[in-house]
Every structure is written in C-alpha cells, then in structure tokens.
Design goal:
alpha+beta, Metallo-beta-lactamase, Chain A, seven-stranded mixed beta sheet, 24% strand, globular, binds zinc ion
Length: 251
C-alpha cells in the first residue's frame, strides 16, 4: 500500500468500497533529512492500517509533522491518535478549528504564502477546487509534488488501488474523474468551466509540478497533467450543464 511518487514522497494508499468501485482516502509521507512529514492524516477507519504503513515506511521512527489540507474528518481523523503515538508531532493547518481535538495548537499556515516545516519549504495555494474556506493545496517545493486535497479526485476499480497515472492504459479515466467531482464537489454546478480552467492553468504556470497528488484519487505524474486538466475541465462542464443553473446573463 506504499508507492513512491518521487524519491522522497510516498503515497500511502488506502481506500474503501464505493458502489461498484473504490474511493481513496490516502495520505502522503515526505522524507526530509531523516524527518518525516505527513500530508493529511486519513480516516479513523484506517487508523491501524495507516499507523502500520507509517511505521514500516519510517523504519519505526514515526512522523515529525502533519500538514493538513483542510479539517474535514476523512482528512483529519487520526491527528490525535498519531500525535499520541509519536512524540512531538508538529501540526500545521490553515485553520485552528476548535471542534477538532488536537487542532487547537496547530501552527497556522496562511493560504497564499510559503511556510518552512522542519527545514523544507511548502507553498500554500488557494485552490480553485475547494468546498469550503480554509482548504489549501500544498506544494512541496523540493519535490514539486502538488497535494490537491479533494481536487483531482477519482473513483477507481478494485485492482487499481495502487496505480499511478502512468500505469493506467491512458492516465486516470475521465468518467471516474467526472463521477467523483459530481458526487463530492457539488458546487461545481455553479462554476464556469472556462474560469475554472483559467484558474488551474495559472497555478500550473506559476509552479513546476512533478505530480498531482490527490487525497481521493490516483496520483497523476507530470506527463499526464495536461490530460488530467482537460478531463477535469470537461467533467466540470458536464456537471454545470446537467444542473443547468440559471446564470446572471439568463436573468
Ligand atoms: Zn475529502
Ligand atoms: Zn481501492
């Protein structure tokens, strides 16, 4: 259940059944000078599975920091448990939501700014694909991996649980991207797909991205990013069309 996305970024892939398919709730582990940084903490259903995978990947050392993309439970479910399990785990988050145990002492990252975590620089990017404020996309400036929280998610077939985009016949299938965003990012019905694409292109123009690493999907490597962007734009277009919300121009 552990795949390298780059030399120092590993994907700890966990998923659960969703209708006839599966949905990921993964985390990513970054190695930096002998320290380990976890991006998101996963669902509490997968606590043991993730703790075992972290133990194995870090040779028993455990993690030194957690960076949270946002505080929804499938992302933040194991913060307290992991901070109990390993000593001095620093928490970095864009919000200090008091309702989430263990988040009140988080170091705040400011969306739109960079932050140093254990000597490594991370860019906290304001995402065009987010379902609430305080969500950030996190780019690891050293590896160039962009962690996109709920954005770029996709369902996958049993058997595709650990595949990178390069291991599909033709990258991550468009239909699974569409279905995931239709079900989970319902506000996309109000979004103009052209504007979404422009906002996405600006991010990819500003930053070199070696891989797109979603929490709820298979990672997309750099060579498949243009395909993934086209598919996401078309998926957003389909979602907007299906709901056919009246726009200001129609009024
Ligand atoms: Zn999510
Ligand atoms: Zn799976």
């Amino acid at each position: 259940m552990t795949r390298h996305v780059t030399d120092d970024v590993q994907w700890l892939t966990v998923c659960y059944p969703h209708e006839d398919a599966h949905e990921h709730v993964s985390v990513y582990l970054i190695e930096h000078d002998g320290s380990y940084i976890l991006v998101d903490s996963g669902s509490f259903h997968h606590e043991q599975q993730l703790a075992d995978a972290i133990d194995e990947a870090t040779d028993g050392a455990g993690i030194d920091a957690i960076i949270l993309s946002h505080s929804d439970y499938p992302h933040s479910g194991n913060i307290s448990e992991f901070r109990d399990e390993w000593d001095d785990v620093e928490l970095v988050a864009s919000s200090g939501s008091p309702e989430i145990q263990g988040l009140t002492d988080a170091r705040r990252c400011v969306i739109g700014e960079d932050l140093d975590v254990l000597g490594r620089t991370f860019n906290f990017i304001d995402p065009p694909l987010a379902d609430r404020s305080h969500t950030t996309w996190i780019r690891d400036s050293e590896s160039g991996v962009l962690f996109t929280a709920d954005g770029f998610g996709n369902y996958h077939a049993p058997g595709e649980c650990e595949q990178l985009s390069s291991e599909f016949d033709d990258a991550v299938p468009e239909e699974t991207v569409y279905e995931f965003h239709r079900d989970n990012l319902v506000w996309l019905q109000y979004v103009d797909p052209d504007k979404l694409r422009t906002a996405l292109d600006e991010i990819f123009d500003d930053y070199d991205v070696s891989a797109v690493a979603p929490i709820h999907g298979n990672p997309t490597l750099a060579e498949d990013v243009p395909t993934a962007l086209d598919r996401l734009e078309r998926a957003a277009g389909r979602i907007a069309e299906e709901y056919d919300v009246p726009t200001v121009e129609d009024a």
